[in-house]
Amino acid sequence: MIVRIMGEGQWEVADSRFPELNKLDDELLEEMEGGDEEGFRRTLGALLDAIRRLGEPLPDDALEPSELILPAPDATLEEVRELLSDNGLIPG
User: Fold this and answer.
1) pLDDT tens digits for 34-67?
2) Is 41 exposed, middle or buried (0-12, 13-18, 19+ CB in 10 A)?
3) I want to staple 40 with a disulfide (CB 3.0 to 4.6 A). Which of 11, 29, 31, 73 is the partner?
4) Cα 34 to Cα 8: distance, rounded to the nearest angstrom
5) What digits encode the pLDDT tens for the residues 8-40?
6) Distance between CA 90 and CA 29 in Å, rounded?
7) Beta bridge partners of 85
8) CA atoms in the 13 A half-sphere facing the CB of 4
9) pLDDT class for 92, splitting at 50, 70, 90?
10) CA-angle at 22, arms to 6 and 14, nearest 5°
11) Judging by beta carbons within 10 Å of its beta carbon (0-12, 13-18, 19+), is residue 74 exposed, middle or buried?
């Protein structure tokens, strides 16, 4: 799956990695619902770091459609809230 981190670029992430990513996404959703700003910051950073670690970066000149778009590391809790579906940032 092609994942874009807003303001950074794209990574190709194997489907087999999504259970780990979904765990972080569930944590992030819980923290957002509870208004835990500190937890939200920590978990958003961990989620984006996991994408960078587990994925293969695409070249800057690649124009692949992103199947999943994640917020920038400095996104606010309110900005991320607008991106969320009932299942979090990552479907599944």
Assistant:
1) 989 899 999 999 999 999 999 999 998 888 888 8
2) middle
3) 31
4) 28
5) 999 999 999 999 999 998 999 899 889 898 999
6) 10
7) 88
8) 11
9) low
10) 75
11) exposed
What would the two tokens of residue 9 be? 């670029």
Q: What is the pTM of this model?
A: 0.87
Task: Find the Cα–Cα–Cα–Cα dihedral 29, 69, 85, 91, rounded to 10°.
Answer: -80
Separation between Cα atoms, residue 15 and residue 61, nearest integer Å: 24
Longest dimension (CA), the chain: 39
